[in-house]
Amino acid sequence: SILGLPQARDIQVRTSDVKTENSKLVKVVADKLSVAARRADSDGEKCLQDTLALEGVMDNVTLASFKERFLQPKIEKHRRLLTKKHLESTGEDWDALISMPATHRVGF
Hints:
Low-confidence stretches: none
Mean pLDDT: 88
Distance between the termini: 48 Å
Number of strands: 0
Helix content: over 70%
Shape: elongated
Number of helices: 3
């Protein structure tokens, strides 16, 4: 059998090594994405708390500014979590995830 040849065994070993290294790299990147997502969420929450501490009624300009400063970090959080999920998912898992309604997803 061709799989019994030394070259085939070498390819299998190298393939296994590459998969192991890839898994390690995915974990490192996934961890960094989680940290960045938490930081973005914290930035959004700080913006909200700072705005709640203001006295008086917000005018349209202030409200628009708050909306942008609050939503941008929240969008970034979810973008990073989605990227993390994509990295960690197999092709079939990813296809199932993106075809599922957002209200049924866990971990976001």
